[in-house]
């Protein structure tokens, strides 16, 4: 039995197709139940995110749970034709499936290399499969191995420590240059779109606890503020909010700057020379470039931040070979472990069979020796001699079996021994 994977991601499928084969959390639960009912001896872990849908299952020796069966199952779950699914999905099996899972969990296959969210998504998919009973011995070993490999990449490389999105660089690298802490600092978020939301998330993680959201649509400002349990204010209070702010973030779509040099000049006396950090993440720019002329005002614009993002991307790329070596090492280690596990029952059964033959022969031989006046001490020597014969006979095939296991059972010796000695 080996692992197989069928799936698609942003690398090989358009978003329109990914939407058609994606699963909600509720749909995943339904699919796992349906799989368990159809394939009682099979295992399945289903990963579905905005960028990928992947089914990891066991493949049995009979072929009943093979590629075609999984394609048909997936197609049925979304009322699609199997041919439509087959043409747009990638199939991997054996070591390729394991290595791919390890690469995904370590965020080396993500749209943003090194993002941390994918590992938690992989773990959640595995935990749900465990909870609903569709995971099993093979998927237990593989997904636990994936978690171990991802943690090694996190701790032994710098690939996760380099921020590559504009908001993460702004909050994680620029803010600490100006403020030791955001606790108690007045933070003003201008704009309630995707950039504003992402920036607000990083700010909260960084400890910001005094945040105000402004947007020309008060309803959108309210929705975003309530989602993060912060406050909001009407847009016409903007200049008053700037007076109170320690940090302002521009993420609007305004065609002209929302804060000009002249406007800030009029506010300076009310601010009393307090330090102000202005992060302009908008295109067109939200803050007049002339603001950089004021003392105690630190202006960072989108080009500054994107340059930092690009530098960090280059640094992540340098870490890629090291991360890939870890994935390769962990894949080989798990495969060796799985292959040796597969030989264990065969070796045990072969030894048990040999010992049973020995016992049967001794039960016939020893009474005859006793009737001929043989000494009891001879019985022990005979048994030891038989054990040595068994060990010498079994050593070559078992050594070959272990070597074949280390090479991935390429010679098929496990199956051959089972058939030759009728171990099943």
* Structural class based on helices, strands and sheet pairing: alpha/beta
What is the mean predicted local confidence, pLDDT?
87
Head-to-tail CA distance between termini: 16 Å
Q: Give the CATH topology of the largest domain.
A: Beta Polymerase, domain 2
CATH class of the largest domain: Alpha Beta
**Can you tell me the number of structural domains?**
3
Q: Which series of helices and strands comes N to C?
A: EHHEEHHEHHHHEHEHEHEHEEHHH
Determine the strand fraction and express it as a percent band. 5-15%
The total count of strands amounts to 10
Can you summarize the main beta sheet?
Answer: 6 strands, parallel
Question: Helicity range of the residues?
Answer: 55-70%
Summarize the helices and strands and which ones pair or pack.
Elements: E1 2-9, H1 15-21, H2 25-38, E2 44-48, E3 52-59, H3 67-77, H4 82-86, E4 90-93, H5 95-105, H6 117-132, H7 137-156, H8 166-178, E5 187-190, H9 194-205, E6 211-214, H10 218-228, E7 231-233, H11 238-244, E8 247-250, H12 261-271, E9 276-280, E10 297-300, H13 302-371, H14 376-406, H15 413-420
Parallel strand pairs: 5-6, 5-8, 6-7, 8-9, 9-10
Antiparallel strand pairs: 1-3, 1-4, 2-3
Helix pairs in contact: 5-7, 5-13, 6-7, 7-13, 8-9, 8-13, 11-12, 13-14
């Amino acid at each position: 039995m080996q692992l197989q994977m069928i799936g698609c991601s942003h690398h090989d499928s358009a978003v329109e197709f990914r939407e058609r084969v994606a699963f909600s959390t509720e749909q995943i639960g339904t699919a796992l139940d349906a799989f368990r009912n159809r394939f009682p001896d099979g295992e399945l872990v289903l990963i579905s995110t905005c960028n990928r849908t992947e089914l990891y299952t066991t493949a049995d020796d009979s072929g009943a749970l093979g590629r075609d069966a999984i394609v048909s199952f997936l197609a049925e779950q979304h009322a699609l034709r199997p041919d439509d699914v087959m043409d747009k999905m990638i199939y991997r099996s054996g070591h390729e499936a394991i290595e791919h899972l390890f690469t995904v969990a370590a965020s080396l296959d993500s749209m943003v290399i090194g993002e941390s969210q994918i590992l938690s998504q992989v773990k959640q998919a595995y935990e749900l499969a465990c909870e609903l009973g569709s995971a099993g011995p093979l998927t237990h070993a593989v997904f636990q191995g994936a978690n171990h490999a991802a943690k090694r990449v996190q701790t032994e490389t710098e690939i996760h420590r380099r921020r590559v999105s504009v908001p993460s660089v702004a909050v994680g690298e620029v803010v600490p240059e100006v403020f030791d802490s955001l606790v108690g600092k007045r933070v003003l978020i201008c704009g309630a779109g995707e950039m504003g939301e992402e920036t607000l998330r990083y700010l909260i993680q960084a400890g910001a606890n005094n945040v105000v959201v402004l947007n020309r649509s008060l309803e959108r400002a309210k929705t975003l503020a309530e989602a993060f349990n912060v406050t909001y204010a009407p847009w016409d209070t903007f200049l008053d909010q700037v007076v109170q702010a320690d940090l302002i973030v521009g993420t609007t779509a305004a065609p002209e700057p929302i804060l000009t040099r002249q406007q800030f000049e009029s506010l300076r006396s009310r601010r009393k020379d307090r330090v102000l950090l202005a992060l302009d993440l908008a295109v067109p720019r939200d803050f007049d470039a002339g603001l950089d002329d004021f003392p105690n005002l630190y202006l960072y614009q989108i080009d500054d931040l994107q340059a930092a993002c690009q530098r960090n991307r280059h640094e992540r790329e340098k870490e890629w070979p090291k991360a890939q070596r870890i994935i390769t090492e962990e894949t080989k280690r798990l495969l060796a472990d799985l292959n040796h596990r597969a030989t264990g029952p065969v070796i045990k059964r072969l030894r048990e069979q040999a010992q049973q033959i020995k016992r049967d022969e001794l039960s016939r031989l020893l009474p005859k020796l006793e009737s001929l006046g043989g000494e009891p001490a001879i019985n022990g020597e005979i048994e030891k001699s038989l054990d040595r014969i068994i060990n010498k006979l079994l050593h070559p095939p078992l050594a070959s079996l272990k070597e074949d296991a280390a090479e991935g059972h390429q010679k098929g010796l496990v199956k051959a021994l089972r058939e030759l000695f009728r171990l099943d």
